[in-house]
Amino acid sequence: MTGDGAGAGDETGGGVDEAGWSPTERALLDAALGFYAAAEGVLDFAGRERPQLRHDAAAFHAVRDAMRLLEERVLAAHAAGATRARLAEIARIEPETIALILERRGVAPSRGDG
Known about the structure:
The protein is mainly alpha-helical. It is about 50% helix and about 5% strand. It has helices spanning about 25-40, 55-80, 85-90, 95-105, and strands at about 45, 50-55. Strand 1 and strand 2 (about 50-55) form a beta hairpin. The radius of gyration is 17 Å and the shape is elongated. It starts with about 20 loop residues before the first helix and ends in a 10-residue tail after the last helix.
């Protein structure tokens, strides 16, 4: 609960209630944050024509590694029972991208997988 009586995870509270998250969901969030931090490392927002990519091989390698971990965490959370919609919500990734990750790794869609 927040000070105004709203739950931390509801729209009026503005926050995310992670108290009920499973360890695999938390790991997915950590991987998503790591990916976004790595992606920020290859973007230059200070240039005249913003944003521009920084041509930094190490930074691109970090993005690849972070995406690999994110994909592994998507698979683990899905195997633990998280739906595609829940995966997209946690990682802040488009549902279509979640579907591509799962399908590329050989996970077929299921009827209850929203």
